Amino acid sequence: MHILVTGGAGYIGSHVVKQLIEKTSHRISIIDNLSTGHQSTIDTLNSIYQNERYDEEGITFYHEDLKNFEAIETIFTTASFDGVIHFAASIVVPESVENPLKYYMNNTVNTTHLVSLCTTHNIKHFIFSSTAAVYGEPPEPQVKETTPTIPINPYGRSKLMSEQVLQDASQAKEDFSHVILRYFNVAGADTLNRIGQSFPNATHLIKVAAQTVIGTRESMMIFGEDYNTPDGTCIRDYIHVDDLASAHVKALEYLEQGSDSNIFNVGYGHGFSVKEVIGTMKTISHVDFDVRAAPRRAGDPAVLISDNSKIKNILHWSAQYDDLSGICATALAWEKTL
User: How far is residue 247 from each of residues 128, 276, 319, 324, measured CA to CA in Å?
Assistant: First the structure.
């Protein structure tokens, strides 16, 4: 099959492309505006492709923005895709509170146009990069896919709206099916240290901690120490990016088999507090870096942990890197290469 990956030069997208190269025989194209992705990542992926596939074709890369509807339509008209894995989006929760229209335009509007192109061009499979932020402040510590979706920030709402667009489109077009993957907190890097999270202004806790270890940042902040948790800091379910990537390969296989559209949480089913993560990074790095207290950020729930039983039972997905020390170690190793 010919698979289009939007945002394939970015953090999660590049790890999924890497696994598509290593685990499948699919032809791969990428659309990315390189706002958070990098040309060097595309070059590395092409190098992996050549090592794995031993041919000259490589990955087709379109340096384009999804908001340029005419250009994207031209790509869909000239190429022939069988499936789309859609990552390209804005993802910073505090920014979404400050600039919500950016999130509704970049996330919901662009996704809607992308889904429309898929149905017009008879593309059968769509995998959507969603988020645990759609659950908001859940009533129980572990959330199931059936937990009410009441997002508390524009980022989560923009993703939930996109989910609804996708569900309605699949219901209206019989041969268009989708998988929605609701991510928990993604971290770490390729275990061979070839690709990782390269965006310098990232807000992900483990990357920020790694940057503080090596001195890219002088200090880091804990945003809120008065949450209703054992140590007062937020608790999250941290998943290694390679485990998350493998869920996408499993989801694609699931759709290829003619299975019905579905939604899956992707996490490990247990959580760590902000202070526990920082303590782990200090332990594995042997660096006692500077950590300071700061007020809560808008839109942060206290606890968010996945119930991952559905993805394990239906997609037969299993985690390979469920170890916080290992996740921190791969993140730190990658940070040292930048």
Answer: 12, 26, 9, 19
